[in-house]
Amino acid sequence: MNGLVPLAAEVTSSTARTITITLFLFFVAVTLAITIWASRQTRNATDFYAGGRTFSGFQNGMAIGGDYMSAASFLGIAGLIALYGYDGFLYSIGFLVAWLVALLLVAELLRNSGKYTMADVLAFRMRQKPVRTAAAVSTITVSIFYLLAQMVGAGALVALLLGIKPGQTFLGMDAATAKVGTIVLVGALMIVYVTVGGMKGTTYVQIVKAFLLMGGAILMSIMVLAAYRFNLSTLLGDAAAASGKGEKFLEPGLRYGIESASALDTFYSKMDLLSLGIALVLGTAGLPHILIRFYTVPTARAARKSVLWAIGIIGVFYLLTLALGFGAAAMVGSANITAQDKAGNTAAPQLARELGIRYLGGDTGGAALLAVIAAVAFATILAVVAGLTLASSSSLAHDFYANVVKGGQASERQEVNVARIAAFVIGAVSIVLAIFAQNLNVAFLVALAFAVAASGNLPAILYSLFWKRFNTSGATWAIYGGLISAVVLVFFSPVVSGAATAMFPHQDWQWFPLSNPGIISIPIGFLCGWLGTILSGESDADKYAELEVRSLTGAGAH
Amino acid sequence: MSTDAPETVSTEPEPERGRYLAVQQSAEFAGLRKALRGFVFPATVAFFLWYALYVILSAYARGFMNTRIGDTHINIALIFGLLQFVSTFLIAWYYARYAARKVDPIADKIRHDLEGGAQ
User: Fold this and answer.
1) Residue A552 and residue B5: Cβ atoms within 8 Å?
2) Could you report how far apart the first and last alpha carbons of chain B are, in Å?
3) For residue A86, what is the nearest residue in chain B, using CA coordinates?
4) Domain A6-251+284-443 of CATH type 3.30.70
5) How far is the C-alpha of A253 from the C-alpha of A273, rounded, in Å?
6) Who contacts B25 (Cβ-Cβ below 8 Å, separation ≥6)?
7) CB contact A241 to B (< 8 Å)
8) Cα–Cα distance measured from residue A170 to residue A406, given in angstroms and rounded to the nearest whole number
9) Does the distance separating the beta carbons of A555 and B115 come in below 8 Å?
10) Record: contact A556-B15, CB cut-off 8 A
11) Nearest-CB residue to A556 (from B12, B33, B44)
12) Tens digits of residue pLDDT in A334-352
């Protein structure tokens, strides 16, 4: 169904396969070499958790870009714009604006007062065990939601690359087997990056990936815009015409805030739009894998600089998603996209194939560009999963093992060994879960991770940094209240059951009408934090003075 | 209760704990807090409301958002979205400038005094 005659399609896919596999193996070889080099530089816990705190603001800014622009950004948003037009752009906006929360309220203060993990700040003036346990639970939950999204993206990509359509096989594998195989492969690689390279290796992998992804996105965007003589209006007009939905394709409302005959459905759909909007903008500053990146630079000022660089690179990238998404709608067409992947996750690589055919000399050129972009997408996914795995294994080792189980008495070596073991366990768990989530759009899955982060982590972080009265009970209430309400609402939402597109489409235990829980669970997180605080008499003015002075001035910073 | 004692290995000299309370209550520190909060709180409220306005208009003011600019395919919804990019870049740039001028010098002085005093 990809618009080519069968013979050409076969040539295309076998060429693309060869190039992609070659490029991908090259990327893996280079990043493994970096990882092994980094492992030689990793001597102590600070090297493993925080890359020795020697990265520059620019390097860390690029690494943040590499950590943040995930499969959701590249594959997911392009797919949503290609299928639903304007509504996909909402993600780009929310994902970018969210950085202001990190810049203004969190990055510098966190860098000054923490050491390795998000919980270092949350537990600063609290009783260590309950707060660190809660923070570890929350870190791992958010990271696993996020990991799922990346692995689903990898699975979707491989089926496109290997040219496997339903009913066909490659090396004796059908599409489903190949997807599972890829998910396992990606999981195995991320475990290697993290256990061997630690934060140093992971950071370099993310920097390399940021350049590759920007290069790929800029190249494709220029090709798309050149086809329309750099006239955005013509591109939009063509995308609208090709979508079969006319001007509606360029307006809000095809995917979110759908206006239907039922007033109740319309109300729920609009609430879902608001809920998504809030989750996107408040989630970033609660993502553990992003927060720990601020520890890799020497000072708070370098942390600020790295956020500025990150906002620059991420902002440019999200502007390009317009060209990628509407370009895919105009040049590939939604029928071709949904034939390959129902959720639209393969729109960007399919667009690459079309652009290659157009500019680089027919089917071979198409195969070549598809292969390059697919390799970039794999690099994207690997860099992000490595960051996520590192964040969650750091938290398990530093927060839970060293400070809760060992009461702060673990040696650095023990801690780092536990982190390595934890990376294995988390990798294995996410491989298994990803196999069940394959029908969901990856941008959408990441939005759920954002909702969980905004509900479970952000209230506790903000209260910790800015509210004198905040205490242990408030912190644990905020984290568990936000986290549990978000996860429970997702579990009973149409995402998990009771809808054709759900994870379990044939079961139905759904009662919560919204697919994103943020609008309910984020206020619950803030409310629980407040209530837990005032119900407890605990308060430590000395420790708050220390936290406030250290976080604002950088005195005694690690 | 606090078990972070083994964690205080630092490259910088560690100020005495008792000194923090005194610093926190000093007029100089109050000025630092005011300089920082005086910018970041209003800026946060402003960009959040501006973003919320965009999301709410996308949900409830479809007629307005769907207005096309001239006879192009560009509509107000797209312009509004692009303006969110512009405002984000501007706030980030302005904050960096503000912090370097008004916040960093006070923070440096207090830190210097604290760390010098601990030796």
Assistant:
1) no
2) 27
3) B78
4) no
5) 9
6) A545
7) no
8) 50
9) yes
10) yes
11) B12
12) 999 998 888 888 999 999 9
Burial class from Cβ neighbours inside 10 Å (0-12, 13-18, 19+) for residue B88 reads buried
| Chain A, nearest residue to B117 by Cα | A555
Instruction: State both tokens at A99.
Output: 């950085």
Cβ atoms of A27 and A172 within 8 Å: the answer is: no
* CB of B58 less than 8 A from some CB of A: yes
Q: Give the CA radius of gyration of chain B.
A: 23
pLDDT band at A332 (very low <50, low <70, confident <90, very high): very high
When CB atoms are compared, the residue of A97, A129, A403 closest to B84 is: A97
- Which A positions 380-419 lie with beta carbon below 8 A of chain B? 403, 407-409
What stretch of H or E contains A170? strand A169-170
Amino acid type, B64 = F
For chain A, the structural domain boundaries read 6-251+284-443
Residue A359 — pLDDT band, cuts 50, 70, 90? very high
> pTM of the full predicted structure?
0.91
The model's pLDDT over A298-326, given as tens digits with 9 standing for 90+, comes to 999 999 999 999 999 999 999 999 999 99
Distances (CA, A) of A558 to A398, A406, A555, B67: 15, 22, 9, 53
Helix (H) / strand (E) element for A529: namely helix A518-535
Interface confidence, given as ipTM, is 0.91
Mutate to test the interface with A, among B51, B67, B76 (most CBs of A within 10 A): B51
